[in-house]
């Protein structure tokens, strides 16, 4: 009986910590996104964006060989790649019997893409005129940052949840961040676009994970 009680207390303690951590991250991401909208669309401040461009321009000037590398990295959150990954990964997971994981990845990518277009249409920010490569569409928030974080963040969470390859999970998140930075390097997004994309992608992942968890719990109870 004591053993059962101890385990029960441990479970509730873990859930409390988990809720507190996830809730804090969600609140932080929401506040960051709101703050960035105030900076960009109310204060019309470009100080941070100009500083970020200057840092990337200095890096490009001293290490010009990085430009083709950056152009290659940015492909891994491009529309063709995200379509292929957003369909191919869930199909592969489903074929291997991971039905829930397949649904998570599919909704993570599709939902982030849809939400990104809604946000871009709402804010209507034009892309930087100094872009090194032509890029269609609007600027805020960055789709590469937002959808890329949704994809790689979801995959990282799945690896972490199953306690497999924690280093790979960390590397996936860092890779998503790196892809976001390539957008500033190429001047196709302002730094505030990228930061807002990361915040929005994180918000979507937390909302999606919470909703799926509640839905599957209800499904089991039925």
Task: Please characterize this protein's 3D structure.
- It is a single chain.
- By secondary structure, the protein is mainly alpha-helical.
- The chain has one domain: Phosphatidic acid phosphatase type 2/haloperoxidase (Vanadium-containing Chloroperoxidase, domain 1), CATH 1.20.144.10.
- Helix content is 80%, strand content 0%.
- It contains eight helices and no strands.
- It has helices at residues 2-41, 47-62, 66-74, 79-95, 99-123, 143-161, 166-185, 191-221.
- Mean pLDDT is 89; it is low at 218-222.
CATH hierarchy: architecture: Up-down Bundle
In CATH, the homologous superfamily goes by the name: Phosphatidic acid phosphatase type 2/haloperoxidase
Please describe the biggest sheet, giving its number of strands, its sense, and whether it closes into a barrel: none
- What would the average pLDDT be, to the nearest integer? 89
Write down the overall geometry.
Answer: globular
Helices, by number, come to 8
Number of domains: 1
Radius of gyration: 19 Å
Number of extended strands:
0
